[in-house]
Each structure stands twice: as structure tokens, then as C-alpha cells.
Specification:
Blueprint (H helix, E strand, L loop, with lengths): L1 H19 L14 E13 L8 E6 L2 E5 L6 E11 L3 E11 L5 E11 L8 E12 L4 E9 L7 E10 L1
Antiparallel strand pairs: 1-2, 1-3, 1-9, 4-5, 5-6, 6-7, 8-9
Amino acid sequence: MRLRHKLGIVGISALSLLGTMGLDAPSAGADTAVHYMTLSGSTRVKDDEVIARRDKYCNHDLTGFDSAQVPRDTSAKVDDTNNTCGGEVRAEVHITGTLNDAGRWCVSGVVELYEGTWADNHDLDGTKALSQKCTDAGGTIEWDGRVNNTNEGGDWADYHVDVFAG
């Protein structure tokens, strides 16, 4: 009986210590394993030129991953910004995920299109929101679409985004 009492005090002390460190204790039955969010897919980017036969088309694979673990860090963010074309156009994919106590991911994001006089410019000319979707660990979330240059020219980026929730 005395050992149980001491173990109980140690357990309460540990929870108290977590609270003073700004960390929440996981809820009973929480999935505390490290979970991964992996980005894959592709983009096809068009750099529209004044003379149509000089238009450039570029294909890129999307890659990236991040992890989360309940209760310490329940969010993950993956960015793929290396989708350039023709030296003037760039597509970026930004994905954010949140992991809940049951190991379920909820993920959303945005695809951005930049166009200027060089590929690493900050002239944002089009965005497409990727609506929030949720899946259990082991599932895949997908989005397909196109983001257009809404400011000038006919530049665009087609995208196929896959997020594997591991």
C-alpha cells in the first residue's frame, strides 16, 4: 500500500512539473507516438510570354515532411518553394497540419503563384486555398487544381498535392 501511495505522489508531481513547464499532459488514451505529414505530388507551371511560341512549361515534383507528437507539438508545416519556370514564375505550396489526441490529422494549405522579372521575386499574383480535410493516420489527402496569374499575363500553375498522414 505504501508503494502505491509513493507512486501516486510521483505521478502527480510529474503532471505538476509538466504544467509548470507549459506542457499539457496527454489525455487518457491519447496517441503519443510521433506522427509524420509527408508532402508529395507535382506542379506544372507555365511562364506566359508575349510571343506564344516562347511560352515555357516546367514540371516539378513536390516533396517535404514534418512531424508532430501529442501533447508537446501538435502542429506541422511543410513548404515546397522550388517550382520555378522560365526564370520569372514560381509556384509555392504551403501545407499546415494539426494532430489530435487520437492521431488524426487535419490539413489545409495554399498554392501561391509569383511572377516578376526573376524567379525569386515576391510579386504574388495568384493564390488558391486548399480547404481543410481530415484523415486518420495511414490516410492520404489530395487536392488538384490550377492557380492563375490574376494580375497580369497568362501564367499559371497546375497542381496535384498529396499529403500522407503517417
